[in-house]
């Protein structure tokens, strides 16, 4: 029977002092709690929240005061007024709130669970595969400890990534995904203040620009009923093609020293997940990047149009945000290394140019009508010639697109995938 490393600490927690009975008692209570529910899934989400909260407590999580709440509410109200003339989509804000960093984690965790659990499940399964076949029968019920330990390990690593993300995000929709509750527009005042300070721009202008972006996200995801599922499905489809590097797991596990409680705490999972280099996975990545670019490109386009000459620093803010989203911050890079997902719209500038061309040719209503159905949206190939796409066919009958799946299929016919554009525009 293989040795079981009893002398480890919970990921993200301080190792106990063996000479301190109180610390040892608390540690054993935490350990018992961790193994109490082994069937709860591949990620210990309670531990992830605890690690993220502990990290934020160490780095600082300023509470939101009444003045900041009022400033956020006023910025979102003004943002909605400015957006009204530049988009056919009505306001999607039902609730305007200001979050601290912990509240951002708490209110976005449900979506993160959907995105991370399939990947974590493969990692935990790979950890179990490392146990030799002849040893599994001897382990018996203790084999479930491997899965529970893997869930705790992944939860601790995710908690650290969430803690870093929460210290950087500016709003609920800042990274382009519909992470927060539907209809809730949320800004993170502490992060906006820090970001504005780095740009050396007035805080009120930065806050208003972030509010414009958040309000635009809410309009898009609130009034395009298929979009939320479409974007999240693109992320999930790409994630399903990510494979587990078993050698990397074995190498990481080999670094755990049973005599050193800090070795588990310091074990990192970066590099364990790698995308499959297959045509299907490449196509999946292209669909994901196109979806993110179209959303972010539309948001940037309508926000710049709304701000116009009303916001003195609009040009500097627009460029700063495009660079920020295209490059991804340190926390996004950490998250990408951890679970293999890069949530960056790589073709953001091309998407912005395409929306600008469509608006110039078809007007605001014609531009926003493209969101009526996923098959009307531009494809990655359309980014190469925005003017040609903008001049394309505009008289599609949406009911025909919806009924494609009901049409009889001839031999060899395959229905178009969601997100593909009809051949003729």
Give an account of the 3D structure.
The protein has a two-stranded parallel ribbon with strand order 1-2. It is 59% helix and 3% strand. With 425 residues, it is mostly helical. The chain has 17 helices and four strands. The relative contact order is 0.12.
Q: How would you describe this structure in keywords?
A:
425 residues, 17 helices, mainly alpha, two-stranded parallel sheet, globular, disordered N terminus, two-stranded antiparallel ribbon, single chain, disordered C terminus
Total beta strands: 4
Q: What fraction, in percent, of the residue positions are helical?
A: 55-70%
Largest sheet: 2 strands, parallel
Which class do the helix and strand fractions yield? Answer: mainly alpha
Order of helices and strands: HHHEHHHEHHHEHHEHHHHHH
Strand order of the largest sheet: 1-2
The proportion of strand residues reads: under 5%
The helix tally amounts to 17
**Integer-rounded radius of gyration:** 24 Å
Overall geometric form: globular
Question: Low-confidence parts lasting 5 or more residues at pLDDT below 50?
Answer: 1-15, 34-39, 404-425
| Cα separation of the termini | 66 Å
Secondary structure layout plus pairing:
Blueprint: H1 21-34, H2 45-59, H3 66-83, E1 95-98, H4 101-129, H5 133-139, H6 144-166, E2 184-187, H7 189-199, H8 203-223, H9 227-240, E3 242-244, H10 246-254, H11 262-266, E4 273-275, H12 279-307, H13 314-327, H14 330-339, H15 348-369, H16 386-390, H17 398-402
Helix pairs in contact: 2-4, 2-6, 3-8, 4-6, 4-9, 6-14, 7-8, 8-12, 9-12, 12-15
């Amino acid at each position: 029977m293989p040795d079981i490393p009893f002398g480890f600490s919970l990921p993200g927690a301080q190792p106990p002092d063996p000479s301190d009975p109180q610390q040892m008692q608390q540690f054993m209570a935490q350990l018992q709690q961790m193994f109490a529910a082994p069937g709860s899934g591949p990620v210990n989400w309670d531990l992830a929240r605890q690690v993220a909260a502990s990290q934020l407590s160490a780095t600082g999580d300023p509470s939101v005061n009444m003045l900041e709440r009022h400033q956020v509410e006023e910025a979102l109200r003004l943002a909605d007024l400015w957006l009204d003339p530049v988009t056919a989509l009505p306001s999607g804000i039902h609730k305007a709130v200001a979050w601290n960093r912990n509240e951002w984690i708490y209110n976005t965790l449900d979506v993160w669970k959907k995105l991370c659990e399939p990947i974590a499940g493969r990692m935990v399964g790979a950890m179990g595969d490392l146990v030799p076949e002849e040893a599994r029968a001897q382990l018996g019920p203790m084999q479930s400890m491997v899965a529970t330990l893997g869930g705790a390990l992944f939860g601790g690593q995710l908690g650290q990534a969430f803690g870093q993300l929460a210290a950087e995000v500016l709003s609920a929709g800042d990274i382009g995904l519909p992470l927060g509750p539907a209809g809730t527009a949320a800004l993170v005042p502490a992060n906006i203040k820090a970001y504005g300070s780095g740009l050396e721009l007035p805080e009120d202008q930065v806050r208003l620009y972030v509010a414009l972006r958040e309000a635009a996200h809410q309009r898009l995801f609130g009034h395009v009923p298929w979009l939320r599922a479409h974007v999240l499905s693109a992320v999930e489809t790409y994630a399903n093609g990510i494979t587990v590097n078993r050698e990397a797991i074995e190498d990481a596990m080999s670094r755990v020293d049973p005599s050193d409680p800090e070795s588990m705490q310091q074990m990192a999972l970066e590099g364990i997940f790698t995308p499959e280099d297959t045509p299907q996975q490449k196509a999946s990545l292209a669909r994901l990047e196109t979806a993110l670019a179209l959303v972010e490109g539309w948001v940037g386009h309508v926000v710049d149009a709304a701000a116009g000459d009303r916001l003195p620093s609009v040009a500097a803010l627009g460029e700063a945000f495009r660079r920020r989203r295209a490059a991804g911050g340190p926390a996004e890079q950490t998250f990408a290394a951890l679970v293999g997902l890069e949530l960056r719209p790589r073709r953001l500038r091309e998407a912005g140019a395409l929306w600008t061309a469509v608006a110039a040719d078809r007007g605001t209503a014609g531009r926003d009508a493209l969101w009526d159905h996923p098959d009307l949206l531009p494809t990655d190939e359309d980014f190469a010639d925005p003017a040609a796409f903008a001049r394309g066919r505009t008289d599609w009958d949406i009911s025909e697109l919806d009924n494609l799946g009901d049409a009889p299929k001839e031999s060899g016919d395959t229905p178009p995938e969601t997100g593909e554009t009809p051949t003729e525009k």
